[in-house]
Write a structure and sequence with these properties.
This protein is of the alpha/beta class. The model has no long low-confidence stretch (mean pLDDT 96). It is built from 17 helices and seven strands. The chain starts with 16 loop residues before the first strand and ends in a 7-residue tail after the last helix. The protein has a domain of 245 residues: Alpha/Beta hydrolase fold, catalytic domain (Rossmann fold), CATH 3.40.50.1820.
Length: 461
């Protein structure tokens, strides 16, 4: 691909596409997939696309690797740490200021269009994006309104700011809201609430007291040097956004306060810094540099570094992503590229559209999807809110009695209903069959959560 699509004879880059051909002889068209991040690799689509090609055989499936990530001319700086000032200088040396600026959503949308032109084909063409991929998909729809027969946005990132705030401006705040919601759900469960009342009037009181004890070095002796306020707020945010992790989140607070010998070993393992895995992949599965590059340029800007820091300092839970991105922009001095005419523009289209969002999604909360839906009021533009679902509903809206390896989820059924007949609202009956998070610890999924995070068979004991 051209590095700059407005300069086709200039420098070029590599852009990977992955394809799985539907096994059927009769085809309805193509479904194209965009990954999130920014910076996530399409590698996670390899297995699902293969499964769908055998089960939904009337479609061909394509996934485009974002420029700067994975195998698409990744932004790497081998001699320095990703995201550092030295890395930024290295990238500027490799690409030049103008060249580095081309690693942006508009140029990535042109890459997708160029691939679609190259592939050609008959039938309908749909574009699916997840998380940041929804932001890119909307950029594509703005630039190429006539190339699609429909758009699927999963975990919706608004194309433009809302009341002056950009999507990553509220990232840390959203994580905090979700963890407080999880604690309320724990209190509503007799088992979970009863356990937490061992150490406080309710779950929030337990969390407040835990932070007070951290601040006063009052945790049990084995945990005192291990758990700081920042470590706990980040761990709670990490668990909260994970479909399995949220089921052990209240139990973590319970175990910190109980502090038995078994609890200490579990907590130490949970908070331990993992060793860097040996390089086993052909290319990285996430580009922190591309993530920082795009976020600092166009996905933050409604707050200040001081405001981001002030929130993290008082948060119950925060991944500190908002804070880290403002640090990258304002302290590290990451090179910011100039915005183009398509940036933050909403596509004006009545084309069919399916917006999918979980109502327990901290990365792209359901309010984002509702805001986006206000820009897409068409009769064939549908918003489906999936109860208790987290981020990336296509993979994680698990159904009762369906093996996870089947890649048969509620959101998946909605997607295939939509592409089969975009003129009819999709059947949302599968939401009644979705597995809900269990905070009691009694269900199979809660025991699996305990195994994954505590290496035990019970979240509590």
């Amino acid at each position: 691909m051209p590095l700059n699509h407005q300069d086709a004879e200039g420098a070029s880059i590599d852009v990977l596409v992955m394809r799985a051909r539907g096994a059927g002889e009769i085809k309805k068209g193509q479904i194209w997939f965009l990954m999130g991040g920014p910076g996530e690799s399409i590698a996670s689509y390899a297995y699902p696309l293969e499964v769908w090609a055998q089960r939904h055989t009337e479609w061909d499936y394509y996934a485009v690797e974002h420029r700067g990530a994975g195998a698409s001319s990744p932004l790497t700086c081998p001699g320095s740490a990703d995201g550092s000032a030295e890395c930024a200088a290295d990238l500027l040396s490799q690409w030049g200021e103008a060249g580095l600026a081309m690693f942006n959503p508009t140029q990535a949308a042109h890459d997708v269009a160029a691939w679609m032109h190259r592939v050609g084909g008959e039938g309908r063409r749909f574009l699916y994006g997840v998380s940041y991929g929804t932001y890119l998909a909307q950029r594509f729809a703005f630039l190429y309104p006539d190339m699609l027969d429909g758009l699927i946005l999963d975990g919706v990132v608004p194309a433009g700011p809302d009341n002056g705030l950009y999507p990553i401006d509220v990232y840390d705040q959203n994580a905090n809201h979700l963890v407080l919601d999880i604690l309320q759900r724990c209190d509503a469960d007799p088992t979970c609430g009863g356990r937490m009342q061992t150490y406080g009037a309710d779950s929030l009181a337990v969390l407040d007291d835990t932070y007070a004890r951290i601040d006063g070095a009052g945790l049990c002796a084995d945990l005192n040097p291990l758990i700081s306020r920042a470590a706990l707020r980040q761990k709670l945010a990490e668990l909260g956004r994970n479909w399995w992790g949220r089921m052990v989140l209240p139990a973590l607070l319970y175990r910190i306060n109980r502090c038995s010998a078994d609890d200490v070993e579990i907590i130490k393992a949970l908070f331990a810094e993992e060793d860097e895995p040996e390089e086993a992949e052909v290319y990285p599965l996430f580009s922190y540099n591309l993530d920082t590059h795009i976020i600092t340029s166009e996905l933050i800007g409604g707050l200040s570094l001081d405001q981001a820091q002030a929130f993290s300092d008082i948060a119950y839970a925060s991944p500190d992503e908002t804070l880290d991105q403002y640090i990258a922009r304002d302290r590290i001095g990451w090179p910011i590229y100039p915005l183009d005419a398509a940036t933050h523009q909403w596509p004006a289209t009545d084309s069919p559209m399916l917006l999918l969002n979980g109502d327990m999604d901290p990365q792209t909360p359901v309010q984002f999807a509702r805001f986006a839906k206000s820009h897409y009021p068409g009769d064939r533009q549908y918003l489906v809110e999936l109860p208790t679902a987290n981020h990336g509903t296509l993979m994680m809206t698990l159904l009762q009695g369906i093996d996870v390896n089947a890649v048969d989820t509620c959101a998946g059924r909605l997607l295939f209903d939509f592409v089969a007949d975009p003129d009819t609202p999709p059947d949302t009956g599968c939401t009644d069959l979705m597995i809900r998070p269990d905070f009691s610890g009694a269900s199979d999924q809660a025991r699996e959560a305990a195994r994954r995070f505590f290496r035990t068979t019970s979240v509590w004991d």
